[in-house]
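Researcher: Good morning. I'm working through a list of sequences from a screen, and I'd like to move beyond sequence-only analysis. For each chain I'm collecting a predicted structure so we can compare shapes side by side. This is the next one on the list. No need for commentary yet; just the structure.
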Amino acid sequence: RTRALQAKPYPCIEQLRFLDLNLAKHPRYSEVLSRLQAGEKLLDAGCCFGQDLRKLIFDGAPNTSNLYGIDNEKIFLDLGYELFRDQSKYQGSFVVMDLLAPAHDTTAINRDMNIVSAFSLLHLFSFAEQKMLACRLVEFRKPKPGSMIIGRQVSTSEPNVYSGLQKGTQLYGHDAGTFRQLWEEVGAATETKWRFEAEIKPAGDNMQGNSFTMPSMGWLYLTLIRE
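Model: Good morning. Structure tokens for this chain:
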């Protein structure tokens, strides 16, 4: 944790939330496992230490090259190997990439993923940046019905612009309605159509000590299925 915080002082790392293994709490988790066991591919965007990918393998997903992780901090990926002691065993692929930098070449994974996972990622950014990121996520999935994007973000009862976690930055806090509006814009920009599912769960004590300033926060679980 100390070495990761030196690179990026994210509150989720400070509070050891990477140990929560949040993908496993998603309502579609059993479906994700089944699809991976059938040979489909998954990309974890903003994967941090790759903890959710390791959890998938522990729960029965094949330890193969069908698992991908992206993060913009190479040290997070390196620390993941140290944390799980599996550099010689883990068969998935990691890519160091800033998803907001259009110059990065994503040819190797574009249009090839059945499932894209994005947990605790979009809520770090402004509305415009969220839209850009979401469009990049759409680029990664296979261009056919049934491909899926899932995630979990911090939600608020009062959608608006708020101070970001880094000094001088802003983020946009959503409820289910405004996130649906965001995804409608993403669908129009990418000429895709999606079935939208959202569920807000109380954050409870899990939000104590966090750095977000939004009122009445919860966890917004998201599922988007390509039609």
